[in-house]
């Protein structure tokens, strides 16, 4: 037999296999009856067929398939044999042929979990020959096609027999269409934008900043901003009449830890009274960023200490006057004393600046009237001491009248 005959034989075998696969598909789905499939096999033989030696095509069929339901035709004969394991009491599982995977993907090997499937052997030889299984067959008048059913995959095929099982798809002249994978588009998830780290900005300036002058000192008071990262307050100063212009200008007075929203104070001491001090305060955060502007305040320290209260006060009353005496104070900045006096019956004292002396005479007083007197000391910036305890005195006229002059004494005659 030449190559043309060989091709014709192969075409005939695969045509029969394809037709019978249609039978099985129709049986499982209910869309086509086995009779129609068999008729299709008769009506669509391969072109230019020829009688070939006996061949068998074993095709897996369902458990409940009954070949007798198909009437014997001129081209079809069936032989059914049953060889079933009595201990096996489960329905065979017929798995459909695996879908053809794309060539660029590895093909997963199917796992055979089903019991042995039944097969249908199609006899392509003379219909008058009987199947080797020993069952009766229906003859064929045209080229001879016989069918034989047996459980499981048959043993070693007889010569001139083609075996097709459920694990191997039946090849046809038309390749199967490439399966189309249908996917349901998912709703795109809006990506969450990355969290932008907060920009570290310069801290705020002080809420308030005040300088209060004292004697050779200045007291500074301030309120901090509420910045959470506030770390410290830096204070600088100038004595040249101008405020510092930056965190590095002027003289550093102090840098103190700061509590957000808190209040604080600082005393600048050992100053020269009368010299003005100009301050500027800056805030600093925990990354050493400094406030862009500072807080300004100025003050001039001065002497605010009053002299001590004078001691040794004495009063000497005279005619229309009272002499006031006291002890001298020792302060270096002492400027003088004040003498206060009034009638004891009056409400208001009269102040007299007597200068830096230790005695003073109050004159033009009314004799016989009592006067209240006390004194105080003051310094060069008019800081005044407390006043002494009130003392009193009464001016008195102690001068006798003048002698009588020009008096003439004469004797009267005859007055005996």
Notes on the structure:
With 416 residues, the protein is mainly beta. The chain contains 2 helices and 19 strands. The strands form 5 sheets. It has a 5-stranded mixed beta sheet, covered by helices on one side. A 4-stranded antiparallel beta sheet has the order 9-8-11-12, with no helix packed on it. Helix 1 (3-29) runs antiparallel to helix 2 (34-43). The longest helix is centred in the N-terminal third of the chain and has 27 residues, at 3-29. It is rod-shaped. The termini are far apart.
Write down the overall mean pLDDT: 74
Please report the number of helical segments. 2
Major beta-sheet overview: 5 strands, mixed
Q: Roughly how many Å apart are the termini? A: 228 Å
Low-confidence spans: pLDDT under 50, at least 5 residues? 74-78, 117-172
Structural class: mainly beta
**Strand percentage:** 25-35%
Gyration radius over CA: 68 Å
List the helices and strands and how they pair.
Layout: H1 3-29, H2 34-43, E1 57-61, E2 77-80, E3 118-123, E4 146-150, E5 162-163, E6 208-214, E7 217-223, E8 230-238, E9 251-257, E10 263-268, E11 277-285, E12 295-299, E13 314-318, E14 321-325, E15 334-343, E16 350-355, E17 359-362, E18 371-379, E19 391-393
Helix pairs in contact: 1-2
């Amino acid at each position: 037999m030449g190559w043309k005959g060989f091709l014709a034989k192969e075409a005939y075998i695969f045509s029969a296999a394809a037709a019978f696969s249609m039978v099985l598909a129709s049986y499982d789905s209910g869309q086509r009856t086995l009779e129609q499939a068999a008729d299709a096999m008769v009506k669509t033989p391969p072109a230019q067929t020829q009688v070939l030696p006996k061949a068998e095509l074993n095709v897996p069929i369902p458990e409940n398939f009954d070949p007798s339901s198909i009437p014997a035709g001129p081209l079809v004969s069936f032989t059914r044999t049953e060889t079933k394991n009595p201990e096996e009491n489960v329905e065979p599982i017929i798995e459909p042929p695996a879908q053809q995977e794309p060539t660029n993907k590895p093909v997963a090997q199917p796992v055979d979990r089903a019991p042995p499937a039944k097969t249908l052997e199609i006899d392509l030889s003379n219909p008058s020959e009987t199947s080797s299984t020993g069952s009766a067959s229906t003859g064929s008048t045209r080229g001879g096609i016989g069918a034989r059913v047996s459980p499981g995959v048959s043993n070693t095929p007889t010569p001139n027999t083609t075996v097709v099982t459920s694990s191997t798809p039946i090849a046809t002249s038309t390749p199967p269409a490439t399966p189309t994978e249908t996917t349901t588009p998912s709703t795109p998830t809006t990506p969450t934008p990355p969290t932008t780290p907060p920009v570290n900005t310069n801290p705020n300036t002080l809420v308030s900043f005040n300088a209060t002058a004292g004697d050779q000192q200045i007291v500074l008071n301030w309120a901090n901003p509420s910045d959470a990262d506030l770390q410290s307050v830096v204070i600088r100063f100038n004595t040249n009449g101008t405020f510092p212009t930056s965190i590095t200008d002027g003289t550093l007075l102090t840098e103190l830890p700061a509590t957000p929203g808190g209040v604080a104070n600082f005393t600048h001491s050992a100053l020269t009274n009368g010299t003005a001090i100009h301050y500027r305060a800056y805030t600093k955060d925990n990354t050493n960023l400094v406030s862009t502007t500072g807080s300004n305040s100025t003050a001039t320290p001065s002497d605010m200490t009053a002299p001590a209260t004078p001691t040794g006060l004495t009063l000497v009353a005279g005619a229309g006057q009272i002499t006031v005496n006291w002890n001298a104070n020792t302060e270096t900045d002492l400027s003088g004393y004040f003498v206060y006096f009034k009638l004891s019956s009056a409400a208001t004292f009269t102040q007299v600046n007597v200068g830096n002396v230790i005695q003073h005479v109050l004159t033009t007083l009314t004799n016989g009237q009592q006067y209240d007197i006390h004194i105080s000391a003051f310094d060069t910036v008019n800081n005044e001491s407390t006043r002494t305890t009130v003392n009193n005195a009464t001016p008195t006229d102690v001068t006798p009248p003048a002698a009588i002059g020009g008096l003439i004494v004469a004797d009267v005659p005859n007055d005996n």
